[in-house]
Design brief:
With 144 residues, the protein is mostly helical. It has 7 helices and no strands. The chain binds protoporphyrin IX containing FE.
Amino acid sequence: MIKMIHSYWAYIVLIILIIAVVNALLGFTSKKEFNAKDLRISLFALIASHIQLIIGFLAYYNSAFYESMRSMGMGEVMKNSELRKPLVEHPLLIIVAIALITIGFSKHKKKTTDVAKFKTITIFYGIALLLILAVIPWNLWFTK
Ligand code: HEM
């Protein structure tokens, strides 16, 4: 059940994050005014990713991969890329990505110009999106 929620919520996170990055990039390049809609899009992406972080932790401790780690030990997990990806690379790098989103959101609020706000969101959310895309276990996601 929790694995299914994690799998479906991932679509929501990716869609909102892509919208937030594209919106910020367009705002930055066309020097638009940073208005309430832009704030709302960035905030939704922040909230959706934080919800996924919590669901991710629940999925982690309920997953069959975690059971394998408990029986085989961490040393064996690190040697096996099929296990290392969902148990180590995916969670760790996504935590870094969500930290970047959080820092970006908090930094953009302190910026005094609209162009600086869009730039901050573009950079921090953009890097976070790339990190997330790099460590999604695509083989698990689309093999059902
Ligand atoms: C933006 C945040 C995240 C996204 C977009 C994301 C996305 C995904 C996707 C698409 C899958 C494959 C789902 C499937 O099997 O159908 C997955 C699996 C998994 N994720 Fe995440 N994830 C995120 C955060 C996390 C975090 C923070 C953790 C752990 C702390 C985590 C732990 C796992 C685990 C253990 C699996 C394998 C589940 C299993 O097959 O038993 N995820 N994730």
